[in-house]
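Structure tokens please, single chain.
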Amino acid sequence: MKPELVYKIKTDTRLKTVSEKARKLVSSGFNAGDGYSEVWIRDLNTFTDLATKVADKEKLKEALLTFFKFQGKDGNIMDGYTEIKNASSGGVFYYSKLAPEFAAHKNTVETDQETSLIQALYKYVKATGDHSILKEKIDNSTVEELMGKALTFLLEHRFDKKYGLLWGATTADWGDVQPEHDWGVVIDSSSHFAIDIYDNAMFVIALNNYIDLLALENQKKPWLLIKEKIVSNTKKHLWDKKNNKYRTHIYLKDSPFPKDFDENKIYYHGGTAIAIEAGLLNKKQVKQAYEKMKANVKSAGAQTIGLTLFPVYPNGFFKNKGMSEYGYQNGGDWTWFGGRMVQQLIHYELYDEAFEALSPMLDRVLLHKGFYEWWTPAGEPKGSGQFRGSAGVLWSAIEQLNAQSVQE
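Here you go.
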């Protein structure tokens, strides 16, 4: 790290201020944000590290174990759970005798609930040293066994043998809204199934985490073989060498979009960041990805590399009106993923780029006095005003930058 950057990091008061704000927010609960009553696993996964520092560890442990209490017989994991009094609104709710005070829900278009839980539990164990959670019994099975069951669910129910990769319903990048339905979070007869980089990169990370937690080598070996095949097949089928990017989708049958629409011209920011975390790009490719994201931000007139994707899907391609151009997951700017890309830039020692990318994210938090869920290209805050996922990824990025500056 250059001395000038070390000085900037050590003297930039924004870092400390935003870090303190993040700590305060995450210390106050595990629900996704002030716009959500639910504890969502894909969100909790991104602020577990911070929660181990500022929240009640026993309550955090219980929050993680609650997901296993709702685990399906086939191994599937719910998206989230809420107090049973909140289950009176629309949607399908699931109940468990093991957690009678809660109701759970699942957006079946996703293929990241199982992998998110394993990643979150891994972060909890690594941060706290509490390996005993792996031997906790949930309805006669250990947590370690249930983690394996969750991964097996993906291999048995979300795995395409032709490509050797996971599939889900078609969504925009990492999103949970399919185009064929007014709401779009549940697989139905209109769904189009596809393989994408986000789901498979999340699977690789979860496999790495699970393998690391397993104590015995003979337990690790079959999972290592699975991981190696997923990595190989991801690079073989999803990597677009010509365009130096991961493809948007490989459709198992057909696309929900018009035949004359070239979907692969779209660059997925979120899925690319997760692919980097999974080790699916080298340092040169990471640098190229960042430069492409910067160019996309400029073209979109956006503010940060949290820009979900670019160019966006045209209006009308998603029946859900919230998925209009630059709306929600269709070109909305999410610190929740931009912050994860900053962390990867730090990991690959691209420190100047990391600080550059982080800076406007810090400014937004301070200007609007909150960790908003997402932003329009013009910088208007949208969604939950205190979104813990955004707080968690920013805190982690700040911690990592500070740690590197101390070493210099």
